[in-house]
Structures are given as C-alpha cells and as structure tokens.
C-alpha cells in the first residue's frame, strides 16, 4: 500500500501527541486510577496508533517515524496490559504506620507470643545460671564490660565527671543500630531453617538478658539496671521480638504443607507480612539506638534514675497501646481486627 507519508503524519499527529501526553502523565503517577472515559480513550488511541504503525511499517521510508510509533505502541501495551500484580497498591507511609503495621502484628500474634515465651525461658535459664554460679557469666556474657562487678561499674559511671560520648553520640547510635539490625535480620532470616535458628537465637538473647538482670539485682543495683535498660530496652527488645516474629511467620510458610500449596506460593502469601514486620523492627531499632546513645548511657547525678525509668515506662505503654489498638476496624462479623 502506498501512502502519502507527509499527509498521513499531519493527519495523525494530534492522536500521537495525545497518546504521548497520556503516557507521560501515567509515567509521572503510575498509581493514579483511570476513569472509564480515560481508559476508553487510551484503548482507542492504542488501537489507532498500532494501526498507524502497521501502515508505516509497510513503507521503507521514514524510519524515525516508525521507531516513534513502535515506542508509543510498546508503552501503551505495557500500560494497558499492565506489569503490576493484582492487588498491588500504592504505598502510603501514614496508612502503613497507623493501620497496616499494627494489624499485621496482631494478625501474627501467635508468632509474637512464641517469641516472648522463648525469650522468657532463656531469661529464666540465664538468671538461674548466674544466681547459682556467678562465674557462669563469663561463659554467657558476650560483651567484656558486662563481666566486671556491677557495683564497681555503677560507682564508676556515677562518678564520671566528663561526657565520654562527647562528639561521638551519632556514631555510637549508628553502631548500636547496625549491630541490633544485624541481630534482628538474622533472627528473621533464620526462619528459613524451619524456625529452629530463630528460636535458638531468641533463647540465647534471653539467656544474656536474664544473666545481666540477675547479676545486677544480686549486687543491689536494681535501680541502676532499670534506669539503664528501660529507656531503650522497652523498644529494642520488642524490635527483636518483631523481627523474630517475621522469621517465625516465614518458618510457618516453609513448614506448612497441609493445604497442598507449593513453597513459592506459600512464601508469596506471607511476603507482605514479613516485609511489614521487618520494616517495623527497623524503625524501632532506629529509635532505640538514639535513645540508648543520648539517654540510656547517662546516669545519676546527670539524669535521675526515676526520670529514665518513667520515660521507659511511658514508651512501653505507648508501644503496647499502638500495637494493640491502632488501626482497629470492625469486621463484617462484628469483631475487630
């Protein structure tokens, strides 16, 4: 078929430009919802430009025009037939924070409860070991500064006349965040070991926590202990629980074969919850890192212990209220999630 390309291009140019405008608008905001009229216009222009391409392709002239139409048709095809999975929605940070995250935590409450139980068992074991044999802490404690006499450390901290973190608070906070994030992500990743690795890691963390607590309590430094640990611990420890909770959700997807679904299908079914819980743990660890660097490391007489303990208790209460109450909505059956 012989066509007058100059006349053909002049007649079709408004449609091509309109198609380019629509595609550029979709590129700027790919999550915008098309109205029925807009969808029909896009479909019409796609078919029209595709027909124009077929006519131009038959002619060897104007390769640039053919390439332009090829790009338009390819972009329109991708837009119409879509590459986004069904159910994929735009990420809204506020909605995720106020609704998705707490709902996900409550939906996976059994995994959360298991993380707490395992940690408590570890604390009992570690505390009992140190209470029976104080030398056991040399085998339990991973950090050298925890091996000394608690009373000597408290006396040293309270007598300090200078700020040992002066000029290094941000760096220290970064080190804390990095270390705790590694532990949390490790607990999550170990979910692929059918959850065995996650359980062992949680138990070991509990052993350390219990050993430290009993060591300081037996030394008569309970107030220092609470003032030191509560400000950051009420967020940091639950953050590790949440990361391990994600690991156990992952483990359940790996282990569960009762419904006959393939492993890939089971993993895809929990990927949103795992990602949400991992994100929650990361946010909590960032907060805990700052609090530990800027508050927890300072003791009396610089900061009264009662103030630090009160701060920690308020943080803990707010966290419980947030995870337990935020984003609740009534279901069709009358219950709440």
From TrEMBL:
- Stored Pfam families: SpoIIM (PF01944)
- Please tell me whether the keyword Membrane is annotated for this protein: yes
Key words, A-Z: Membrane, Transmembrane, Transmembrane helix
Answer yes or no on keyword Transmembrane. yes
What InterPro entries does this protein's entry cite?
A: SpoIIM-like (IPR002798)
Task: Classify the source by domain of life.
Answer: Bacteria
* Membrane-crossing residue ranges in chain numbering: 111-132, 183-204, 211-231, 237-255, 267-290, 305-326
User: Which PANTHER family does its entry note?
Assistant: SLR1478 PROTEIN (PTHR35337)
**Can you say what this protein is called?**
Stage II sporulation protein M
